[in-house]
Amino acid sequence: KIDADSGTAVCDPTKYRQLIGNLIYLTITRPDLSYSVGLLSQFMQNPRNLHLDCAKRILRYVSATMDYDIMYKSNTTIRLEGYTNADWAGYKADRRSTSGFVYSVGSAAISWSSKKQPTFALSSTEAEYKGATIATCEAVWLKRILKDLGIRLTDHIRLFYDNMSSIYLARNPAFHARTKHIEVHYHFICERVQAGEINLQHISMNLQVADIFTKALGVDKLMQFASELGLTTSTLLYLRGSTVSGHAHEIEKPNNPVRGLRTPEARFRKPNRNNFSTDGSCVRRGMLRVELTFP
Q: Rounded to whole angstroms, how far apart are CA atoms 219 and 221?
């Protein structure tokens, strides 16, 4: 957990804001960065050295995973599915909840979000219910977009989340008498469920992909959920700009994503200026030494 007033103030807040702005742009193609970047963006008014150190840690992770991208496969069935989750009162400053969702069509994610809820939630059920409503609005919009593209979804949209109380709340209107304090627009999910457009399904916490958008995760969970989002290792580059031919491979769990990560095709290490070749067996990228192993 990061506090807003921890540590000393940054000497030049402008550089911190520029760094966070660049990372926000990177989240367009890197959903695994959404939560951490969104958390640090809340301190742009008065950043501290602790926040800057966390931003540099994100940069080290990005440096070690520069060849990650989202891969959409052509031989998969087109089906719109989503995951949603919420972290109740996870932010220490104002005790507001963080909600996140992700939708995929086929093999990879096409839409995701990690955002702090604008109002307080009195229980974890309420936080999950609000997050599910936000995800439902996104599902309705995505369905219309796919329809405009000529893709008609014959099945209902499956939405997975791990809170049974909020699922019962959306399916049974009689429960709404106990939730009068919740804003009316958050009950939109009940209407979509009753119409058969959204199918709510329970999922185990260990398989909840949306956790990557609501809280900080360990290495194993981060790599597992990043792979579920469709992130794969792409082709690497020569020094002269040409590419190394090869297929993309799914992410393998690293020992430490900050110091370097191991994949079936590449191992990242610190550069060695005395032992460097340009024949494709060793490529230097920034401050990393990449050793390629071809199958």
A: 6
**Residue 237 phi, psi dihedral angles, 5° rounding:** -115, 145
DSSP characters for 211-223?
GGGTS---HHHHH
Could you identify the residue written with the tokens 């550089």? Answer: 15
Q: What is the pLDDT of residue 91?
A: 80
Q: Where are the beta strands (DSSP E) in 91-197?
A: 98-105, 108-116, 157-161
CA-CA distance, 20 to 52, in Å (whole number)? 9
Query: Is 117:126 a contact under the CB 8 Å cutoff?
Result: no
pLDDT of residue 261: 40
Residues β-bridged to residue 161: 202
Q: Mapping DSSP to helix (H, G, I), strand (E, B) and coil, where does residue 129 land?
A: helix
Q: pLDDT tens across 216-244, in order?
A: 999 999 999 999 999 988 754 444 444 44
CA 168 to chain CA centroid, nearest Å: 27
Answer whether 251's CB lies under 8 Å from 68's CB. Answer: yes
Q: Residue 252 gets which letter from DSSP?
A: P
Residue whose C-alpha is closest to residue 84's, from 34, 116, 129, 122: 129
Taking only the tens place, the pLDDT of each residue in 79-100 is: 999 999 999 988 877 889 999 9
Looking at residue 31, what DSSP letter applies? G
Taking the C-alpha atoms of residue 118 and residue 183, their distance in angstroms, rounded to an integer, is: 12
In the chain, DSSP assigns E strands to 68-70, 80-87, 98-105, 108-116, 157-161, 198-202, 231-233, 249-250, 266-269, 282-285, 288-292
- Reading the block at residue 277, the tokens are 């070749």
Q: Which residues pair with 288 in a beta bridge?
A: 285
- Residue 206's contacts (CB-CB under 8 Å, 6 or more residues apart) are none
Q: pLDDT by residue (tens digit) across 251-279? A: 444 444 444 443 333 333 443 444 433 33
